[in-house]
Design goal:
185 residues; mainly alpha; 2 domains
Length: 185
């Protein structure tokens, strides 16, 4: 009986991530706010803290952040079976869209309607990424150190500095902050 409930939850995970993947444009980061709303607010499968932990683990791991997030959330909710269902649900819409393009939709991309659609979808994707940043980031900046590092990283990114260099300066800034704070005591 327990396995049957895991399959049922796995199917719910599949459907949740399939819908999210089907109606999101712009890649993994634009999916994050929708995934968070489904898992944290609507289904209550994860707490906000658990979702942020999953996202923190999903980002540095190789692969798309949305698929990694789906896998980790599915595992947390329903074990290995849940992870498989969630990851497959996340990947399948993209596969179907690419298959549709390969089967002949690409000839319509040059039409004025398609160009307008992709301009709007691009703007929506930027908005979703910004929303994810502010929603997930608001609780991360509780102390001066993370606020300073966050602002510093944003400044480095805005000026087009390579991400590895930005990471280096963020770590350096954290070390300097800790050193200055220990000297002040």
């Amino acid at each position: 009986m327990k396995n049957l409930s895991k399959v049922r939850v796995g199917l719910q995970l599949f459907w949740t991530f399939f819908r999210t993947g089907l109606f999101t444009f712009g890649g993994g980061f634009s999916m994050i706010p929708l995934i968070a709303r489904e898992l944290v607010e609507r289904r209550r499968w994860l707490t906000e803290e658990e979702f942020r932990e999953n996202l923190a683990f999903a980002m540095p791991v190789p692969g798309p952040v949305a698929v990694n997030t789906a896998f980790l959330a599915g595992y947390r909710v329903a074990g290995a079976l849940g992870a498989a269902f969630a990851a497959f649900g996340c990947v399948l819409p993209s596969f179907l869209v690419i298959l549709g393009i390969a089967l002949g939709l690409s000839r319509y991309f040059g039409t004025p309607l398609a160009k307008k659609f992709f301009m709007g979808a691009g703007a929506a994707a930027v908005g979703l990424v910004a929303y994810a940043f502010f929603r997930l980031g608001r609780d991360s900046f509780r102390d001066p150190k993370t606020l300073i590092l966050g602002i510093g990283a944003l400044v480095l990114v805005v000026f087009g500095i390579h991400p590895l260099l930005a990471l280096f300066f963020a770590v350096l800034g954290g070390l300097v902050y800790d050193w200055a704070r220990s000297r002040a005591r």
